[in-house]
Design a protein that fits this description.
The protein is of the alpha+beta class. It has 19 helices and 22 strands. The protein is elongated, with a radius of gyration of 35 Å. The relative contact order is 0.06. Keywords: ATP-binding, Chaperone, Cytoplasm, Nucleotide-binding, Stress response. This is Chaperone protein HtpG.
Length: about 600
């Protein structure tokens, strides 16, 4: 005859009520109670599977499954499994003895967590509190369980969240556990079917045991990252990407991560097609621990630039229950960080070497990512410098070394520095690009949101180069040679031209200077110094106000002393006509820089039409 268990006792915790502790430290994240309880049920299922494989359980495994049932009328949620179950002694050991030494120590250890929901997701499940997460939403919890061990008797445990519990015999035919939550009045949102389904799909989408809710399996127990890469095809990876991001374009390519020493890590990282505004691309990597979703905030685990990637990382070795400062200093996190960086760089290098044409075809989509990596991570730069590409206005690609060789002869200045010219807007800066091409100078296309920062990185990392925007000065000053052009204007004529254009130009707009330039250069060139341009671009890309505030931007107005139009203007007898012609030439220069806008542009068009 079976013995009858009937026992009452006190939980081994140094506090009168567990509610304040549980609710205080997990206040903003109540939904994870379901993640913890379902994870426990999955663990119990996997344990019985392992015991069977070790020959320690000879019974029928059956269909291992975790079932969640909602009874809105009874106000209960039940999580059931057919795993290893528990004996009465195991209940006392694992449930009654809560694994922390006291509320005071617990509070002290996590006082920096606050109640903002940022740091408390990992507390449960790592200090023996997984089961007790139930009390975030339940006023009463009962467990009905039967161990897999031969001759085991089913038992029922019940506790209302105080230190008192009751343990009695129970009726249960099969092994496993049912955890029944009697939902508290302030948590009845969790009695809604859609709310529960949403939580299950968020945290349990890839749990390794089937999860059933409302008679439907809601998870994929064998996600792609748990499989051998040699068993997978391209379409498998693309299908999984669509499973993660249903409305996204197909990824460009991917990396399958799989390492078991010196840490455990699996996953798949995808290279998406990046847009110029890459802020919206972030927080797409999902972090899992043994197939349980943890977070998509991976900034302390994945280097900043790699957060532009999409996909999944799964590691049981990432500490999820500690402060950010500890996480940043953790040895395993640093190793994981370095490993992912290396794998990404190796993959890009492999594609570049094996299929350069294909790599060039994708570079417009991944260039932003590669440049960001070069700017922010020295180890990545060491590899990326061999496959990061520069694209010129003719659509030709070069590595850094290839470009140095290509422009060495023509774009080395009198100080033995190479000058790399670039444009940020082909249409707006076309006049300057064409002037550069007349001298067989090459012009790079640098139009992404981070190129102002990338240019700085280039100058710091590539020896003996300067990078200058093609409209930052006259070409003779951008690339200074030993050759000096002579002005065809006399000193008197130069003074006259300077005075004339200073009258035409708003004195606040810039400084007028007369320069000897080639005859085929523009009659008037308006430039804005490279330093000021670059600082303005960098601050604009980071959303910061300009360091120059509301000060008017000062331009340099260079009048080409050798252009025939300037000579013709000076030889015009009427001073009024001289001013009119000078104004037209100046307005043309403004137009070529996109600086002629509003009423000034309207007046210019009217004057031009009238003169036709």
């Amino acid at each position: 005859m079976e013995s009858v268990i009937q026992e009452k006792g006190n939980l081994s915790i140094h506090t009168e009520n567990i509610f304040p502790i549980i609710k205080k430290f997990l206040y903003s994240d109540h939904e994870i109670f379901l993640r913890e309880l379902v994870s426990n049920a999955v663990d119990a299922s996997q344990k019985v599977k392992k015991l069977a494989s070790y020959g320690e359980f000879n019974g029928e495994l059956g269909d291992l499954k975790v079932v969640i049932k909602l009874d809105k009328e009874a106000k209960t949620i039940t999580i059931s499994d057919n795993g290893i179950g528990m004996t009465a002694d195991e209940i006392k050991k694992y449930i009654n003895q809560i694994a922390f030494s006291g509320a005071t120590e617990f509070v002290e250890k996590y006082k920096d967590k606050g109640e903002d929901g940022k740091g408390d997701k990992g507390i449960i499940g790592h200090f023996g509190l997984g089961f007790y997460s139930a009390y975030m939403v339940a006023e009463n919890v009962e467990i009905i369980t039967k161990s897999y061990k031969d001759g085991s008797e089913a038992v029922r445990w019940i506790c209302d969240g105080s230190t008192e519990y009751e343990l009695t015999s129970a009726e249960k035919a099969d092994r496993g556990s049912d955890v029944i939550l009697h939902i508290a009045a302030d948590s009845e949102e969790f009695l809604e079917e859609d709310r529960l389904r949403g939580i299950l799909e968020k945290y349990g989408k890839f749990l390794p045991i089937q999860i059933e809710f409302e008679d439907k399996i809601i998870n994929n127990p064998n996600p792609i990252w748990t499989k051998n890469p040699s068993d997978l095809k391209d379409e498998d990876y693309i299908a999984f990407y669509k499973e993660l991001y249903p409305f996204s374009e197909d990824p460009l390519f991917w990396i399958h991560l799989n390492v078991d020493y010196p840490f455990n890590l699996t996953g798949v990282l995808y290279f998406p097609k990046l847009k110029n505004d890459f802020q919206g691309q972030r927080e797409k990597i999902q972090l899992y621990s043994r197939q349980v979703f943890i977070t998509d905030e991976v900034k302390d685990i994945v280097p900043d630039f790699l957060q532009l990637l999409h996909g999944v990382i799964d590691s049981p070795d990432i500490p999820l229950n500690v402060s950010r400062s500890y996480l940043q200093a953790d040895g395993n996190v640093k190793k994981i960080n370095g490993y992912i960086t290396r794998k990404v760089a190796d993959k890009l290098s492999e594609i570049f070497k094996n299929d350069r044409a294909g790599f060039e075809g994708k570079f417009d989509d991944i260039g932003l990512f590669v440049k960001y990596g070069i700017i922010s991570d020295e180890k990545f730069y060491e590899k990326a410098k061999d496959f990061c590409l520069l694209k010129n206005v003719d659509g030709k690609f070069f590595t850094f070394e290839e470009y140095k060789e290509a422009v060495k002869e023509n774009q080395t200045d009198k100080n033995e520095m190479q000058v790399w010219l670039y444009t940020t807007d082909e249409k707006k800066q076309d006049a300057f690009i064409q002037s550069a091409k007349k001298r067989s100078y090459d012009v790079l296309l640098l139009t992404s949101v981070i190129d102002s920062h990338f240019i700085n990185a280039l100058e710091q990392k590539v020896e003996k180069i300067q990078v200058k925007r093609v409209d930052a000065d006259t070409l003779d000053k951008l690339i200074e040679k030993d050759v000096t052009l002579e002005s065809i204007l006399s000193t008197e004529e130069s003074d006259k031209a300077k005075k004339l254009f200073e009258e035409v130009v708003n004195s606040k707009a810039g400084n007028v200077q007369i320069e000897a330039m080639p005859v085929d250069e523009l009659p008037v060139v308006i430039t804005f110094p490279e330093f000021m341009r670059r600082m303005t671009d960098m601050q604009a890309s980071s959303g910061q106000p300009s360091m120059f505030g509301n000060m008017p931007l000062m331009y340099t107005i260079s009048v080409n002393a050798n252009h025939p139009i300037i000579g013709r203007i000076l030889n015009t007898e009427s001073e009024e006509e001289q001013k009119t012609l000078a104004k037209q030439v100046y307005d043309l220069a403004l137009l070529s820089q996109g600086l002629l806008i509003g009423s000034e542009l309207t007046q210019f068009i009217q004057r031009t039409v009238a003169g036709l």
